[in-house]
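Record 1 of the preview.
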Amino acid sequence: MLLAGTATSALAFDWKAHEGETVSFLANNNPWSQAVLSYKDEFTALTGINLKVDSYQEQQMRQRLVTVLNSSSDEIDVFMTLASREGQQFAASGWYADLSAYTQDAVGPEYDFAGVSPALVKAATFDGKLTSIPLNLEGPLLYYRVDVFEKCGLAKPASLDDVRAAAEKIKECGGGITPFASRGLKPAIAYTFSNVLHNMGGTYMVDGKSALCSPAGQKAIAWYGDLMREYGPPGAANYSFYQISALYRSGRAAMAFESSNELRTIMEGGERLNDTDVVPLPAGEAGTVPTAIGWGLAISSRSAKKDAAWYFVQWASSPEMQKRLALQGVASPRASVAEEEEYKAWIAEAPVRANWQTALGVLASDGSSEVGYPIIANPESRDYIGQAVQDVLLGQRSVAEACAAADSALDGLIARK
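->
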């Protein structure tokens, strides 16, 4: 049983301290939650705590979460959160419980909070309060079909220009396969687009103003929007990770620029295990500056069951659980997991896993967590970024027109503080 046994010191940790209580968990239906919830009966057996789960697609999950938190309801005890997205907003609203004391005073002997990525812990800390516990390390990576590249006489892409040239060649010789797929859904675009922007030397803000219309910003919008319009799947403006992973897994896309967290989903069924390579997005003028973020588990400040909720957070983010999930392609925020013999054996079973692990190392060492604007209204800023890129993707505006409209709106958001 996972985490079976308790501390044997005088201050023994008791996993049954909240037996009979019910904790409500609002989950984003992504690979992390799907994997961890497959073990939820073990959590109940270990603690005696009943787990009530509500799971939604990402946008619906966020809509429900904000509605509940904004009403000061105690309906939700634990929820998934992205500190890089809504962290400042939720912290300013007082919606997060401070988890700092729990990590020091209410943990089993196996927990090892110090082993969690210090960078991700720092990213989840606002005004000295720890708002969530990191669950994974992720960022968008380029999945590509080695067999299709070989068929079309293409080498491994080494630059953003190579990616576009490969898409053009695959369109000519790929037999109807979609050359390139990435996010086109407006609220989801910033996650993948930010990597392109940073590789090209851009940033979102300069001297307190929006810089989306900088030369680097315009070049990034043109690269992304034109590539998706000319070489992306039909209906690309509606694509997020669900559609991208399904398209690539089924063999209908030659390249997919999508989350490292999607390895598990993309490899489902095993058809892509032997024909896929995974690399960080190839370099632009500024080199390779991958996006690196992580989901976290937070406890609502409105929860009436914070202590019991912490038991679920601790269990779900434990070394043992994170090792289990790593074996399913969910990268752990604990460096120690990569040293586990079982994990090393899993990595060695397929070249794509070893390449994925190498790419994760680049995310961890060189990554940027700037996804959208570093302001309280970060979630809203992402919509304007997405709108600008989508305008170009759909051919509705020129790059200059699209980014000028976005810059104007974004300067208003920045001034709002």
